[in-house]
């Protein structure tokens, strides 16, 4: 009789462990979905602000065209092309805002101070949102690598999580502007 109790206790513990692991994996997948939605929102915000600046008439026509096309491509990119399009927008922002004079032109335009601050905020938030997303992906991958999870298919039919890799280095002028604005606020 005690053998049956021990077997039932072990089976119950194994069942609890498997249930907990499946629940943890489900929560990690939900966290990935939420982080991806936040990342998409930040990328869309950055592309929208870049597109607005490109059409505001503060840059020379060539720079405006480069920035507009990169922002437009980033906004319309499909999932499989999104990383490349967002990287190209980062490169376009660095190229257009390579000179501090370009950022001064944005700030000096009507409503430009607010636009510059929005752009700085958007450019700062993209790497943070990407980091949160990739951290969630890394955690889910670690759990999914366990043999028990693979053998018992505890992940169900959820696709294997993929990190979002892109060039998100901010333009130097924006980083300097952000540092100057932070120092002026203190």
From TrEMBL:
InterPro entries tied to this protein: LemA-like_dom_sf
Domain of life: Bacteria
Stored SUPFAM superfamilies: LemA-like
Annotated protein name in UniProt: LemA family protein
Species the sequence originates in: Streptomyces boetiae
């Amino acid at each position: 009789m005690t053998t049956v109790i021990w077997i039932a206790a072990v089976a119950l513990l194994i069942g609890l462990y498997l249930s907990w692991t499946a629940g943890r994996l489900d929560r990690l997948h939900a966290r990935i979905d939420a982080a991806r939605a936040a990342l998409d929102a930040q990328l869309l915000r950055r592309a929208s602000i870049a597109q607005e600046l490109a059409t505001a008439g503060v840059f020379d026509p060539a720079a405006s065209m480069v920035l507009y096309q990169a922002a437009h491509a980033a906004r319309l990119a499909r999932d499989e092309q999104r990383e490349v399009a967002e990287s190209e927008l980062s490169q376009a922002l660095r190229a257009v805002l390579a000179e501090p004079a370009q950022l001064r032109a944005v700030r000096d335009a009507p409503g430009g101070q607010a636009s510059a601050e929005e752009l700085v905020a958007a450019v700062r938030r993209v790497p943070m949102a990407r980091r949160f997303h990739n951290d969630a992906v890394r955690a889910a991958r670690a759990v999914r690598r366990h043999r028990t999870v693979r053998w018992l298919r505890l992940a169900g039919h959820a696709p294997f999580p993929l990190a979002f890799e892109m060039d998100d280095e901010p333009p130097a002028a924006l980083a300097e502007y952000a540092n100057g604005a932070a120092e002026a606020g203190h």
